[in-house]
């Protein structure tokens, strides 16, 4: 039997999803050695300059919990195109991104002129704020453990770590199952639960400061999940609007537009369920504080 790398309990393979599921903390790890890298943002400066609801959400999180940022160092794990760093660069004394995808590194360094490294070993100054916006679920277990071990050694006193990840213990996952918007093997090698992320972070000296309502992610998850139940091309709307890397299908475009008139209001209503039980929301966003 395979043991969970977080709590060391036994894991059972779910043949329908190909994830090994921990019988204790509920954490799921993909039963495959295949790891894929994906590009979520379009590498175009005009697209980066646009402000989306997700951009507003991330900035609002910093507005609420971050103080005296002009004296702080920001580290963004999985910085991708550099969009988050670019939009929040002037908040901090210095901002650093860690990224491994070659095209994202080239774009964020050469076009956006950001400070991007490929390894935590290249970060040689104390860090006050760490963010991981939907990146931890992409990192294999041993690499994730090494990353967290290294991050702890580089943190300044009273540092904060913001983690945002899909919640496999959510109502969305329970209802939509493999049609859940955030069910994404082999891109996601992990499916976290509130218990599993808390246990993992506690091992490295982090305590939960608060859970944060992830409203834009949650509304999107319900809307896309509804569409996935009807449309055979999973996450077509997301890939069409966000990644922009799929072939346009006008029939699916028209079908999505028609269905959105139903899915959007229903999604907004269902998001109220997430708001009332934040540990069951489709995406969990947690502010952790290091225990010095």
Task: Explain the layout of strands and helices.
Layout (H helix, E strand, L loop, with lengths): L10 E4 L4 E4 L5 E3 L14 H5 L3 H13 L7 E5 L5 H6 L5 E5 L3 H10 L3 E3 L9 E7 L7 H13 L1 E12 L4 H6 L13 E2 L2 H10 L2 E7 L2 H16 L5 H8 L6 H27 L6 E8 L2
Parallel strand pairs: 4-5, 4-7, 5-6, 7-8
Antiparallel strand pairs: 1-2, 2-3, 3-9, 8-11, 10-11
Helix pairs in contact: 8-10
Biggest sheet, open or closed, and with what strands and sense?
A: 7 strands, mixed
N-C termini distance: 36 Å
Average residue-wise pLDDT: 94
Residue windows where pLDDT falls under 50 for at least 5 positions: none
| CATH top level label of the largest domain | Alpha Beta
Looking at the structure, the CATH topology of the largest domain is Rossmann fold
Number of helices: 10
Description:
With 292 residues, this protein is of the alpha/beta class. It folds into 2 domains: 43-182 and 190-214 and 284-290, Rossmann fold, CATH 3.40.50.150; 221-272. 39% of the residues lie in helices and 21% in strands. It contains 10 helices and 11 strands. The strands form 2 sheets. Strands 6-5-4-7-8-11-10 form a 7-stranded mixed sheet. A 4-stranded antiparallel sheet has the order 1-2-3-9, with no helix packed on it. The radius of gyration is 19 Å and the shape is globular. It starts with 10 loop residues before the first strand and ends with a strand. The mean pLDDT is 94.
């Amino acid at each position: 039997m395979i043991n969970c790398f977080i709590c060391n309990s036994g894991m059972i393979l779910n043949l329908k999803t190909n994830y090994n599921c921990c019988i204790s903390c509920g954490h799921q790890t993909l039963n495959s050695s295949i790891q894929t890298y994906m590009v979520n943002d379009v590498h175009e400066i005009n697209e980066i300059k646009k402000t989306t609801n997700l951009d507003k959400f991330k900035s609002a999180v910093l507005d609420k919990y971050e103080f005296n940022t002009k004296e702080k160092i920001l580290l963004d794990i999985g910085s991708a195109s550099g969009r988050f760093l670019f939009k929040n660069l002037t908040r901090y004394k210095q901002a650093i991104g860690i990224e491994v995808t070659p095209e994202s590194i080239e774009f964020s360094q050469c076009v956006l002129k950001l400070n991007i490294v490929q390894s935590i070993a290249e970060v040689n100054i104390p860090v006050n704020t760490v963010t991981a916006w939907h990146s931890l679920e992409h990192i294999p277990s041993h690499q994730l453990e090494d990353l967290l071990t290294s991050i702890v050694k580089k943190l300044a006193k009273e540092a904060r770590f913001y983690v945002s990840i899909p919640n496999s213990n959510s109502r969305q996952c329970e209802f939509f199952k493999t049609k859940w918007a955030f069910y994404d093997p082999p891109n996601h090698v992990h499916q976290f639960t509130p218990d599993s992320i808390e246990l993992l972070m506690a091992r490295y000296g982090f305590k939960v400061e608060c859970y944060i309502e992830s409203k834009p992610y949650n509304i999107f998850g319900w809307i896309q999940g509804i569409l996935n139940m009807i449309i055979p091309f999973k996450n077509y709307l997301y890939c069409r609007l966000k990644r922009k890397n799929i072939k346009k299908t006008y029939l699916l475009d028209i079908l999505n537009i028609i269905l959105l008139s139903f899915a959007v209001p229903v999604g907004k209503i269902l998001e109220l369920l997430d708001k009332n039980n934040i540990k069951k929301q489709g995406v969990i966003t947690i502010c952790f504080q290091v225990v010095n």
